[in-house]
Amino acid sequence: MSEHILFLTGKLAEKQCQRVLSNMQPDFTYTVHQIGVKVAALITTDMIARRLHDTFGADRIIIPGRCRGDLDALSEKLGVPVERGPEEVKDLPQYFGHAAQHIDLSEYSVNIFAEITDAPHMTLEQVLERAIYYRQNGADVIDIGCLPGTDFPHLEDCIQTLKQEGFTVSIDSLETDDLLRGGKAGADFMLSLTQDTLWISHEVAATPILIPQQHGNLQTLDSAIEQLQKQNRAFIVDPILDPIHFGFTESVARNFQFRQRYPDIEMMLGIGNLTELTHADTTGMNALLFGMCSELNIHNVLATEVSQHARTAIREADRARRIMHAAKQHNSLPKHIDPGLMTVHETSPFPYSLDEIKALAEEIRDPSYRIQVSEEGIHIFNRDGLNSATDPFELYPTLGVENDGGHAFYLGVELARAEIAWQLGKRFTQDQKLDWGCITDHNEGSIDLHQFKPAGTTLKK
Fold first, then answer.
1. Domain harbouring 86, CATH code
2. Residue 184: its pLDDT value, please?
3. Is the same domain home to 290 and 225?
């Protein structure tokens, strides 16, 4: 027996909801019921509790996505599970497709080493503050970066303080003295050792991360790998990812070749050479780089946030690793899993056509302005008619708010958002901020993914 679902909506959306569900040809039966409110966005759970006297034999009830209130209390009162659907009726097909997949982003298989690149020039308090920030954004290891020819008298204090605060720590330097000091202070990892400096790993317990003795020559890693394997010592290898026009393509091939030669050795990918040294949005770069990690079973990355354009790179890396892990687990493309990396564009930016907006405008009988966006531009309408433009300034003379500063300010903000959404191909919803994906949702009530443990790999020390 198929599930029966009750869809609650407003008067204006009732016919459209019926039409969308009919076109879906769902594998469930349904009832669409409007509860006497014109606009669905104005419905609240308290209102539903007062007005809904028949649940129509439903196994569950789906209410508009912008409906405010306590779903648990409403479910208990009605005796039927209640859940919020999508904010737009047009998104019901995607909503049911997504719900059927049950995509889980709580797991990942790549550890993020977040480097504090200028630690010698920072106070102990500043290092700790930066470490806390990185951890909040998804970092698993705090990498203390040393600078060539720069004194670092508080190196030991930095590492010991971070360890006392529960951080996993790595020391990053090409200077043997820095690596020895860091290892003896309790660092969990050392970046970066070569065959010539491998002796440092015999002096301290920190897990060594190896790089080629000669840049680009994988054979210079073989002896060091053999030594560490004979000692049954944990280690990680970083074949080095080079910046674009300075060996990038060859270095991608080199990482692939190393994985072919050593299928089971733990690897690291230094993604900062791409995110920092390419002036392009880092969300897309992180998606591709973590796709590479997923295909090559690379379980560690070294990430940085030095350049202003890369200031959310750690957070993006965290989201990218979860998306790629989920895609791999489902043997699927990394599509329709999570919109966190879709910061500029969206998969379905314009849910309503101009004809549909015109039809809705004809139903409006009150003076309140509605604003919507279609491929053709920006549309604002109330009972007095519909006006459209691609430049909000063209709409101002039609609004009649010259003597109402507050209303003019509100409409100005909303029309500016609508213009940005139309220009970029983003979803616009009146009275809501534009969605910029994971680069802003960290501080706006998004799910805390960092309560979860990694899956498929663990930090080896």
1. 3.40.50
2. 97
3. yes
pLDDT of 77 reads 94
pTM: 0.83
Q: What is the residue-wise DSSP string for 179-227?
A: HHHHHHTT-SEEEEE-TTTTTHHHHS-SEEEE--SSTT-THHHHHHHHH
What order of strands is seen across the sheet that includes strand 4-9?
Answer: 29-34, 4-9, 60-63, 82-84
* C-alpha separations of 355 from 47, 395, 421 in Å: 31, 19, 19
In terms of residue numbers, what domain contains 314?
111-337
- Give mean pLDDT, residues 320-342: 92
pLDDT in tens, 266-317: 999 999 999 999 999 999 999 999 999 999 999 999 999 999 999 999 999 9
CB atoms within 10 A of CB 32: 20
User: Peptide bond preceding 75: is omega within 30 degrees of 0, i.e. cis?
Assistant: no
Q: Are residues 62 and 117 in the same domain?
A: no
Q: Is residue 349 part of a domain?
A: no
Distance CA 355, CA 429 (A): 18
CA angle 417, 418, 423 (to 5 degrees): 100
pLDDT digits (tens, 9 = 90+) for 341-373: 999 998 889 988 898 889 888 888 889 999 999
Helix, coil or strand: residue 178: helix
Q: Are 149 and 258 in the same domain?
A: yes
